[in-house]
Design brief:
By secondary structure, the protein is α+β, with helices and mostly antiparallel strands. The protein is built from 16 helices and eleven strands. Helix 1 packs antiparallel against helix 2 and helix 3 runs antiparallel to helix 4.
Length: 416
C-alpha cells in the first residue's frame, strides 16, 4: 500500500474534485465519518459545510485541508467492506479518527485506490500538527495495515517512482551487469502494472523509459523460438551497449510469454478508457492549436502522446500512454475525434482561429488543474480554486440585433 498526504488551503475544492469524479462515474463515495446524516442523504453543501464549521474556528490557520490517497497493488483483492475498514484504521492511526472525513473509491485506474478528504482543525479550534506526519505516523500505520490485511508490500514508494528510479539513464552502466539488472526490474514493473495489447504497444511504453524489445528477423532462429533482444536507448532513441536476450532476464519476457499478457490485459482496457478521455478533453479544452502543443499539455497530465508518421512526415497514427492509470490506447480505440485524422483536421482549423485573451486565461486555469492529476502540486487547493467558479472571468458573448432597414416608400412618406 502506498499512502500520500497533501495539505491545502480550501477543503471545498478537494470535495469538488472528488464529487466531479462521482458525477463522471469514475468514483463512488464509500463512507462518511463524523457526519450526522446517512451517506445517501448527504448533499454537496452538507459535506462542504461540515468542514467549514471547523475551519472557521481557527481562521488564523490557512492550510487546513487534508487530501490523502491510499493506493493498493492490483493483485490485492479488496471489496468495499475491507477498503472502508482500512481507511478507518489508517485515519485512526495518523490521529484523524475523531475528525470528520469522506472516503472516495476511485475507479478510473486498474489498481484499487482511495481518496480521503478531511481537515486538521479540531472541534475546539486547535490545529493537528501535520509536519512530518508521513514518517512519524503514516509509515508505521501503513506497514501495520499491510501486515494485518496481507497486502502487497510497497516499501514506501509508488510503482511509477520505482520505475523512474530504475530507468534514469545516468544510473545505467551500459553493457555491464547493472544494465541487465535494471532492464529486468523495468520489464517486470511494466509487465506487472501497465495495460497493453501488442508488442508495438509494449515497446511504446518501454521507450518512454529508454528501452526497447527487438524481435528476431524473418526466418531466424530467434523468430522461431519467439525470442526477443532488449536494449537500452540513448537520448536520441538509439540502442546502445550490448543487447540482452529475453531468456537471460528474470521473468522470461520472450514473445511467447508477452503474447499471454496481450490477451489478459486487453480485457482491462474498456474500464480505463473513460478516465483517459476526461484528461484528453481537459487538454483539448486548453485551446491548443497544434499537435506539438497538444503533446506538451498532455505531458503535464503524465500522458505521453506517441505520434506515428510516414516517411514523408504525414501523421497516420496516435497512441496515448497514461502513466497514472498505466495504460496505452490507440486514438482510434477512443473514437474518431481522438485519432490522428480527427485531431490533425481539428488543429488545421484551429490554426486559422485567433486565440482570445480569455482562452489564454482558461489554459492557465487548466494547467492548475493538472497539478493534482499528476501529483506535482505543492498545495492542492490553490490549484483547484477555478473549479469552484467555472464561469468567472469568461466573457459572455452578446449578439447585437441588426436594425431593420426601412423601406424607401415609408421614408418618402415621412419626408412628405
Amino acid at each position: 500500500m502506498v499512502a500520500k498526504i497533501v495539505s491545502g488551503k480550501k477543503v471545498a475544492g478537494i470535495v469538488h474534485y472528488n464529487e466531479d469524479k462521482v458525477d463522471q462515474r469514475h468514483a463512488q463515495l464509500l463512507m462518511a465519518s463524523g457526519f450526522a446524516a446517512d451517506i445517501r442523504s448527504l448533499t454537496l453543501n452538507m459535506k462542504i459545510n461540515r468542514f467549514r464549521q471547523l475551519t472557521r474556528l481557527n481562521a488564523a490557520t490557512k492550510t487546513n485541508a487534508i487530501h490523502i490517497s491510499l493506493n493498493f497493488h492490483h493483485k490485492d483483492r479488496l471489496d468495499s467492506t475491507r477498503l472502508s475498514a482500512i481507511a478507518r484504521q489508517y485515519m485512526e492511526g495518523i490521529g484523524f479518527g475523531n475528525q470528520p472525513y469522506l472516503v472516495y473509491q476511485h475507479l478510473d485506474v486498474h489498481h484499487p485506490h482511495l481518496h480521503i478528504v478531511s481537515t486538521n482543525i479540531r472541534r475546539d479550534g486547535s490545529r493537528i500538527d501535520v509536519h512530518g506526519i508521513g514518517y512519524r505516523l503514516s509509515e508505521p500505520v501503513r506497514k501495520q495495515i499491510e501486515r494485518e490485511h496481507s497486502l502487497t508490500v510497497a516499501e514506501g514508494r509508488s510503482e511509477k517512482q520505482e520505475i523512474e528510479k530504475i530507468m534514469a539513464p545516468r544510473q545505467l552502466d551500459y553493457g555491464q551487469k547493472a544494465t541487465k539488472k535494471s532492464l529486468s526490474k523495468l520489464i517486470r514493473a511494466v509487465r506487472e502494472h501497465y495495460v497493453y495489447g501488442s508488442l508495438p504497444e509494449f515497446n511504446a511504453i518501454l521507450k518512454t523509459f529508454n528501452a526497447v524489445a527487438v524481435p528476431g528477423t524473418a526466418g531466424s532462429r530467434m523468430e522461431q523460438n519467439r525470442g526477443l533482444l532488449y536494449s537500452v536507448l540513448d537520448e536520441n532513441g538509439k540502442p546502445v551497449g550490448v543487447p540482452i536476450k529475453a531468456s537471460a532476464l528474470s521473468g522470461q519476457p520472450i514473445l511467447r510469454n508477452l503474447e499471454k499478457d496481450f490477451v489478459q490485459k486487453q480485457e482491462l482496457k474498456p474500464g480505463l478508457k473513460p478516465g483517459l478521455k476526461v484528461k484528453i478533453e481537459l487538454a483539448l479544452n486548453s485551446k491548443v492549436s497544434s499537435l506539438e502543443g497538444f503533446k506538451k499539455v498532455l505531458s503535464r497530465y503524465n500522458i505521453d502522446l506517441v505520434v506515428a508518421r510516414s516517411k514523408e512526415g504525414r501523421v497516420f497514427g496516435l497512441s496515448y500512454i497514461d502513466h497514472e492509470s498505466k495504460i496505452i490506447i490507440k486514438g482510434s480505440e477512443l473514437g474518431k475525434s481522438y485519432a490522428a485524422f480527427g485531431l490533425v483536421a481539428r488543429f488545421g482549423r484551429a490554426q486559422k482561429i485567433p486565440v482570445r485573451e480569455n482562452d489564454d486565461q482558461r489554459a492557465i486555469s487548466l494547467q492548475h488543474a493538472e497539478q493534482f492529476v499528476t501529483g506535482k502540486g505543492q498545495g492542492l487547493m490553490p490549484d483547484l480554486n477555478f473549479l469552484l467558479e467555472p464561469g468567472e472571468g469568461l466573457a459572455i458573448p452578446t449578439v447585437n440585433k441588426r436594425k431593420k432597414k426601412k423601406k424607401r416608400s415609408q421614408e418618402r412618406g415621412q419626408q412628405r
